[in-house]
């Protein structure tokens, strides 16, 4: 009979390619891309109401208050 020996995973290290994706770089590029999309779409009123007004620091900048003298209704 042939007995099978168990393969130990600790003996074979896993290969990590130096050219593979890096999570820190991907996160940085994703953050910059998100900022670019929000900056590009900041002129759209729906984006201003739904996203930008809810950001604590800059939310008041996107609130448009119309004086009563300029309101036609």
Automatic annotation (TrEMBL):
Pfam family, one: QCR10
Highest taxon, organism lineage: Eukaryota
GO terms under cellular component: mitochondrion
BP terms from Gene Ontology: mitochondrial electron transport, ubiquinol to cytochrome c
Keyword Thylakoid set for record: no
Keyword vocabulary terms for this entry: Membrane, Transmembrane, Transmembrane helix
Protein name as annotated: Cytochrome b-c1 complex subunit 10
Source organism: Xylaria arbuscula
């Amino acid at each position: 009979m042939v007995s099978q020996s168990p393969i130990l995973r600790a003996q074979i290290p896993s290969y990590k390619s130096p050219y593979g994706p890096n999570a820190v770089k991907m996160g940085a590029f994703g953050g910059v891309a998100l900022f670019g999309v929000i900056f590009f779409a900041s002129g759209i009123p729906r984006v201003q109401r739904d996203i930008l007004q809810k950001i604590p620091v800059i939310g008041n900048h996107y609130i448009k208050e119309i004086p009563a003298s300029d309101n036609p209704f």
